Amino acid sequence: MRFVLAIVAFVVAAVMIVLGIAQRTILLEPAFTSLGSTVAGDTKYTVIDSSALAASPGSQTINVRGDGPIFLAYGRSDDVAAWVGTDAFATVGLSDETGELTSTITEAGVSDEPPSDATTTDAEPSVETATIVNPAGSDLWLDEYSGARSLTTTLNLPAGISVLVASDGIEPAPASIRLSWASDNSTPWAGPLFAGGALLLLAGLVLYLLALLHLRRSRRPRRNIPRGPRMPRLPRAPRPKAIKASQITTSRRGITRRVAIIPMVLVSGLALSGCSADLWPNFSTAGTVTATPTPTPQLTDSVEAAAELPPPAVTVSQLETIMSEISLLSADADVTLNAETLATRFTGPALEQRLANYKIRAVDPAVSPLVALPGAPLTLTLPQQTNSWPRVVMTVIQDENDPSIPTMAVMLKQESPRSNYQVDYLFALEQSAHVPKVAPAIVGAPAIAPDNKLLVLPPDQLAAAYADILVQGEASPSYGLFESDGDNFRIQVADLNAAKSAALPSTASIAFAAAAGSDEAVALATNDSGSIVAVSMTETETVKPVDAGATVGPAADALATKALSGITTTAKGFQNTYRDQLLFYVPTAGSSEKIVLLGFAQGLITSAELP
Questions:
Q1: 311, 332, 386, 444: least buried by Cβ within 10 Å?
Q2: Are residues 370 and 440 in the same domain?
Q3: What are the C-alpha distances in Å from 368 to residues 348, 364, 538?
Q4: Which pLDDT belongs to residue 598?
């Protein structure tokens, strides 16, 4: 019976071990699922659609092969389509019928680009499309990669994200594209099969040894058994000749190793297999839940209502990259006085004020440069909710560890999909300024039309009303609409004007004026239905001689005026023009609150002799 049990244990152990080995070999599922596509044609851009990226669950490994440089970037599907515009491109999608990747060509002239806002002319996008063909460095991308001949990257992209593949925008895009997804090929019952087989094998061995011992005991001679007749003694067989040690080719140690290697390999394999978590079932409460990595871009809020709104123009990570690039570029341009470089990232009144400073410093290096634009940290990010262009983003940069750096507020604008964000307005925030509550960056804020009547003052009337207060003071009809407490700019302008009037000789006169600037007002909504509005204003001071034959000139300490005008004295007089950038909080119509100045920047932009 012991032999039967031992044989059964050996057979069951062998079956269990074979099944465990089969699960890890011939029955093992592949570790990756792959789909490939070869793009036909010679299009310059290939778009990997979101449906293709979601063909299998999990992170996507993208492999692109070509004959030259390779560029890969990902962004919102609408942004990718807008960047491609009307150019010919290939689309790699997923076939619902076959489950394979498909490749289709869209000829030039057909575009899925969202329409631009009415403020953007039709000519502007066409110029951008004609001049910018290389997608590298675009502010629309959430991230980008580059390589040569072969490029592989692993991403975890959610729905609504597409990938753009190109070479350099001139040569055709790489043709070979393969997508792979890691699959779960764990074998949770292989470990128990190995362990159970080993235990049964050991039990069978014990039963076998017990059976042999019992058999040997049963064959021993018994007492009181009569002896039979004695057998005759047989002749001895010749003894074999002794073998010398030198004639032995295999040592006993080698034989022992060969005999012992089989169980050693078996035991080692079982021990190593037991160390892998993929070979054992997970009976914990969380074992049935697969941890999903956080998607690379986070574009939507968890609130269901946010999904119905237009998406924010940028994400926080995008804006951090943008501001870092702008900060480095402006720092270099400020040192080298490079106006062309600066113009690639600055526009509007922010560009005008900085270019004027460059002109002044080129003539007189003793003039101080403007405050440097820091790139981080971003303490507030308010992108516009939009699917079209132009786009606007506001951010506040504040370094709490360095109080010498003023808190800066920046308004950026992107005119078209193929242009980058440019600094439109740049302010130093008032120390007492309290920025009203705004929506989180993952939601964004709608842009307010310049002629919106639902505010205390429409954005396009704000600069003119404030300019009138600077000129007339309390006599201005708009004086009661603006908060005067904490308005340091108003105090600064009044003090400077008074100081200039006092320093002027009796032979000259000075006149001050202020008016709304020609730049468009930029407004973003706040949570209380108010708005944060950026506007520009122009201040002028005109100095003329009073007596015939008298001359006037810039003050001795007016280095900027001398550098721009190039005059020391004149009988005609001269005029200085200042450009002001003003940031206001405007409450909703019917509110008892007043309009509050949040920040400002002022700079001399022109100085010239009167005709």
A1: 332
A2: yes
A3: 22, 9, 22
A4: 96
